[in-house]
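Researcher: Here's a chain I'd like modeled. Treat it as a single chain, no partners, no ligands.
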Amino acid sequence: MKMFSVSHKTAFVVDHCPYMAESSRQQVECDVLTKSRGQGMIPLAPVSKSLWTCAVECSMEYCRILYDVYPLKKLINYIVSDSEFHILNSWRQEDQSTHELMSALAAVGPPNPQEDPECCSVLHGLVAAVESLCKITEYQHEARTTLMDTADRVANRGRIICLTNAKSDTHVRMLEDCVQETILEQNKMAAGSDRLMPIQQCELVLVHIFPQGEDTLVSDRPKKEVSSLLTSEVHSVRAGRHLATKLNILVQQHFDLASTTITNIPMKEEQHANTSANYDVELLHHRDAHLEFFKSGDLHMAGSTSRDSGLKETVTLKWCTPRTNSVGGSELHYCTGAYRISPTDVNSRPSSCLTNFLLNGRSVLLEQPRKSGSKVISHMLSSHGGEIFLHVLNSTRSTLEDPPSISEGCGGRVTDYRITVSPSHLFLLYPIVTDYRITDFGEFMRENRLTPVPESPDAEASGKPPAERAKAQLERYTRYWPMIISQTTIFNMQAVVPLANLIVKESLSEEDLLTCQKTVYNLVDMERKNDPLPISTVGSRGKGPKRDEQYRIMWNELETLVKTHVAGSERHQRVLDCIIACRSKPPEEDERKKRGRKREDKEDKAEKNINKDSEDKSWQESERLKGVVERGKEEQGESEVIKDSPDSPEPLNKKPRLEEIQLPEKARGPVSLLTMWTNRITVANSRKHQEFAGRISSVNNKAELYQHLKDENGMDLHENGKATR
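Model: Modeled as a single isolated chain. Structure tokens:
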């Protein structure tokens, strides 16, 4: 795909020969005070402009419209031709302004009617225009330097617009042949030069100007191909307002412009301040501002009208009462495009009032005029940086809306559905909710808002131009920027905000470094206190990762964020070193973390054991108890060496021996935990006091009272208390 279209370079050739000093015969009234003129005063006679004046004024309007809509990369080279050619400006960007051209034209002056016509010719200017098209512009040189390997993609194409008074169709063909021969000669010279480029395509637009009231000697001819390098078209136009209209149409065709007429603009009358009237103002802008009309086919509903036998069309939009301004307005409109505008009649009072109104910071909404139905606001006029733009408002379905999903959750969440297959071959659908960082994205747009900045030598001397600095800032802000809340941890933490706002800067001051380090120390303190983190559990089952894992995720993400900006300056590296140093914990802290993890594992195992079957738990407890009994027997064997005599009572505080724990007869099988615990308590209590003698000599668990009474009296006592012999 070739770069640089035909509209990149336009060479204007204006005939300055003596015959251009002829009157256009269009009368201009100078005495407009007909009613207030006193008696005896002679009215001023009307005047008429020359063909040269008409050509200069119309060509300047062409240039003004172009510079308003395309301030960059659309260049004009203005050439005046008489006995020789006069180049009034160059292809450099600083020479592209109507002020420079008007100053140069004032120095040239009007044509001299007394000069010999045989010595003057427009051919001098056409040859100079072809030579000028072979010169390389700044933009072409920059593109060729950037694309060293594919420099052939940089095309050299241009357009020549010649305003002259031709003699006949034969004269026109002679001018075309001259341009064709000059292109071939210049291409041969440019083939071996580094400062010139051969012309690959050239459009020649010949505008024949003749006075009003005369018949034209040159016929119109549409665009035709003279050769593979040259195309030509001829326009025969009367001088005056007809020439202005023709060049207005040509500038729209050459640079893909369209016309919009704003109707019903309320303005106060100069004569009567208390009354107002409605006026219309026509604006020119890029054709893409009406793209939605063309797509939807509603162009006829927008009020398309034609002028000059249908050669010019304009779309009519109705003025709405302004409700907000562009700076502090409470409403924000969703715009799909913004295009610079240029008034068609810049010096008229309605155009001047409208531009001043917009430059004061006000915005104007425009609606499509409809005979029925609700009004549709489709455009808005607003100024930015001293330039007026036509904003295209979204009047249909937004291109930023997500495609329709199965359902939409609350809060602007987009809910998708994930399908899984269960072991029983059943399809299960469960929603996955995606929460976008809408608030953070609004803050991101506010911090990276772009505004037009006029170019100045001070800005270039300070370093990068504003556009390059803006691109660099946007690149830094988007190096690490998760779009979904569940994909990030640090951007959901208020404690990380100071570091996240400072680390994206191109360079950090010493105060910024201290703020970042303080933020890292605060995170370390949070980890020491075991504070919870905003870890998302969307799409996961259970409680999510453990506390230790949460902080590990947080530190990893914070380190990733800082690493993306570590090449910015030496202080960025110091922030990263601080994070790495704080992440490496001392050995005692690691040991404490391990103990904490073991304790958590035990608690998890206990929760799992509670959910198991009761029989399994009883069997496990009995097996564990048997192991404890066996270990107790081994301890008993070792203690018999130093054991006291059997008759000596054991100390009261001695712990019960494990073999004294009486297992029930069913201990071979599962034993309940309550039974084992009761036996253990019973044995333990028996060791805490001297055993009651009556309990030791009991029969059938019944103690015999008055044991020595029988020996003394020779009597037997029965249970009922009666004595027997």
